[in-house]
From TrEMBL:
Database matches in PANTHER family: CULLIN 7-RELATED, CULLIN AND GALACTOSE-BINDING DOMAIN-CONTAINING
Signal peptide boundaries: none
Domain Cullin neddylation per the UniProt entry, residue ranges: 19-96
Phylogenetic placement of the source organism: Eukaryota, Metazoa, Chordata, Craniata, Vertebrata
SUPFAM superfamilies attached to this UniProt entry: Winged helix' DNA-binding domain (SSF46785)
Gene3D superfamilies: Winged helix-like DNA-binding domain superfamily/Winged helix DNA-binding domain
Tree of life domain: Eukaryota
Protein name as it appears in the record: CUL9 protein
Length: 100
């Protein structure tokens, strides 16, 4: 029996997974922070606000982070995650409007 050294691609894959988790966490924080202020927002407006905040690298006074590229698919994925977790909800009769 011979043990093989750990492959380099496995380490790179772990780093990518960690980076994706950090990105998702930042996006979820942005979404909840925006909806805490606005109370309710059309999903399209929320996506644009989150993408804009990511590009600018800040969201209001006191909260700054490194700017990074995010797409509407990333934001919508996080919205679905937060809906499933119960942090967000859709308005009755207006499912395109989200509430915190």
């Amino acid at each position: 029996l011979r043990l093989l050294p750990q492959q380099r691609y496995l380490r790179a894959e772990r780093a990518e997974v960690s980076a994706l988790e950090r990105k998702r966490n930042v996006l979820c924080c942005l979404i909840t922070r925006i909806l805490k202020v606005e109370k309710q927002l059309h999903i399209d407006n929320l996506v644009f606000r989150v993408i804009d905040a990511c590009q600018k690298g800040e969201l209001g006074p006191g909260l700054q982070f490194l700017s990074f590229c995010c797409h509407s698919v990333d934001v919508l994925s996080c919205v679905l995650h937060l809906l499933n977790q119960g942090y967000l909800r859709r308005q009755e009769g207006r499912p395109h409007v989200l509430e915190y």
